[in-house]
Amino acid sequence: MSNVFDVETVSWDNGSEHPSQMHLVAEEPLAIRIQGRPYSVIMRTPGEERAHAAGFCLGEGIVDRLSDFQSISRCEGEDSNVIAVTLTDERRQRIEQMMDRRGFVSQTSCGICGREVIDDVRQFAGPLSDGSVMSIGRALAAMDHFDQLQKLRKQTKATHAAAIYDERLALLSIAEDVGRHNALDKAVGRLFLENTLPDAALLILSSRISYELVKKAARARIPIVLAISRPTTLAVSLAKELNLTLACLSRDSDLYVFCGGKRLVA
Question: Which residue in the list 57, 75, 110, 248 is annotated as catalytic?
Fold first, then answer.
């Protein structure tokens, strides 16, 4: 199914009106149900629904490993915008309290400060080990190639992307979506379902790095996160707590490294 649609529009050029067509990307809701109960409705680009839901559940702390799923499937046929997730009895009992207080971190609420957000995330995303190092030159080469992987963006100028690489910088997974969180969930979820997520060593994002994306990277145990745009202050604080490497492109096409610089070598 194509996610690119031609839409009639009108363009203005030097005061003159011209009819034209423009490529727009599809956006539809995806409802995720857990144990038969509504959990979240996500606005996303259709496609890879199982991978999207799997990556979402990992990032939310609903599951830790693939075996925590009893089933993960689309409801009512292939055209349904609903994914039903069933957990094993053991996992369901373990996260029962967390399910009752869902939304605490992701929703804006009076009285919640950055420190409390970090403490809450640390409960289900512990610090990463130092692990291996990566060449800055090779990482920059991957970032230079990143734009070529974004096929939807080239057509619509309206999507984000997340790409995951192994230690040798071989591409493991790439996903595009109207939402930056969705793109990361899809890229992670695909590897999670394939049991190849432990090979992930580098994540490249097309967007700014928010604390939610740091949280998802930590849950996926991806140690190095590079992005086109800068991180937020809370993202840097959380990355330091979780021992992630955070960097973005600088104006001269080099890198600004905000934390975890020991993993990047000249």
Answer: 110
